[in-house]
Specification:
By secondary structure, the chain is α/β, with parallel strands linked by helices. The chain has ten helices and eight strands. Helix content is 50%, strand content 16%. α5 runs parallel beside α8.
Length: 316
Amino acid sequence: MQDNPAPTLSVIIPCYNEGENVPLLFGRLLPVLAGLDVSFEVICVNDGSRDDTLDRLLEVQTGEPRLRVIDLSRNFGKERALSAGLLHSRGQAVVPMDADLQHPPEAIADMLAKWREGWDVVFARRDARVGQGVSERLFAKGFYWVFDHLSDVKLPREVGDFRLMDRKVVDTVNRMPERSRFMKGIFAWVGYRHAEIVYRQGERAAGTTKFNSLKLLRFAFDGLTSFSNFPLRVWGGIGAAISSLAFLYIVIRIIRTIFWGVDVPGYESILVSVLFLGGMQLLTLGIIGDYVGRVFDEVKGRPLFIIRKLYEPGGE
């Protein structure tokens, strides 16, 4: 591998249970790459798939010497699978994309053209969200709004992992060791000069999405807590406000007792106060616990992923 010259372009494709999509993907991707008149490699990361994804990738590799397959020991998640692909990429320009053909391979030519103009990063911005309902689109808009207002890092709107990055950008990302891999935030955090193209997102070629509403919500919360400590700081302000109201209530009760004597209050107010404050404390502890858990993961220093086997062209 090391004796071969580095290609101009690396295409990285994380795969999890994408067996149906593999022949469709390469039937469309390889002709596009062959027409670009640049040397290239395709790196597919099998993220612990439970179907025949690995077998189909190795079948394609028998006829395509520029395909490299990384087989992870289990499912580590798309963000870490993408990190594995970036770490093993050798191209001067690197393009991550999905295996379901929602990212059209034809857009790579436009990104390469911008890269040759001298841009370090070329965003691929979707013109519309395809295959998503109203609730999912509203959730996405809400997430971007919250992230922009609570984080110092601004995410480009309607831009996913599909983009082109220069070699120096990829090297910078690879030097970031954090275990919480919110790649859209990491890509935005490193900066560099960027341009963008607009593409039309396609329908998923086959299979179903691996993200449900709960996973998307957790993913969004991970992204926010990875790039903002506002959820920690906001509870200080909420605590101060509640303490001020409680102090004001104490003053009112003292004045009431001095002028009107002692009455017998109902238990409802006590019950409401205890439940409200207890719930606030548990919520606060949950958010603090999430940050502490991240610190715990970082301190352990476990690897981001484990490679079961690296299938190089011409190998076993």
